[in-house]
Amino acid sequence: MKKQNRTALITGASAGIGATFARFLASEGYDLLLVARRVERLEALGVELTSQHGIRCEVFAADLTQTTAPADIMAYATAQGLSIDVLINNAGLSGKDAFAATPWSALAGEIQLMVTAVTELCHRVIPHMRSKGWGRIINLSSVAAFSPPGASLLYTGIKSYVLDISQSLDMELKPQGIHVTALCPGFTHSEFHDIMGTRNQANKLPDILWQQPEDVVREGWAAVMKGKPVCVPGKVNKLIASSMRPLPISLQYHLGNRLNPFKN
Question: Catalytic: which of 3, 30, 76, 155?
């Protein structure tokens, strides 16, 4: 059944968690705007979901490492008469070389993709959500956000930013009917490690550390609908995250909200 013609924008939707979110939300009756670089995959997925669920599905090819991509995406949505009620900021990557040996253009692209674009898309969809008094935003962080920083990696710092900004936005926007959740999965079966060239290392990890993307998506969606600002899916990941932080996540959120200088 249609969800009042609500539309979900999903980045990184051509595979993995992004494609799984697309299938899940289509089954729930949401119209979709799917974004990724691989437009052929998006189009095939769009045909599949339209046929199976009778939803509207638009696709837009964009490289979110480019600074103009968020504005281009929203301009396309407007041109198609789409207003975004659900945002899934899923697109991501991880560098695999030492920081000093990596060209600045690659590092800048990583930051643009997972920090600036995530933040800008949140900012661009909020006005419509506010006008409707309803909205849902899921930002893909990682269980790595709870871990100590890794040598040469921007990834843990970036995912920590996503975790923190998601909670901050949720504090601000929840009274207006907008829920924001940082979804923090661990190792998830997808093409991520193939694309990053780390499949051999990933295959050496024990099975107990791995989750299916369908489980990650179900837990993440249940969390945002319930208004939970942080979702660490899976018992093993919850144990890992809780062992690395001195205060429980819920207590950190409560203290941050109570001490918010902008709160009325």
Answer: 155
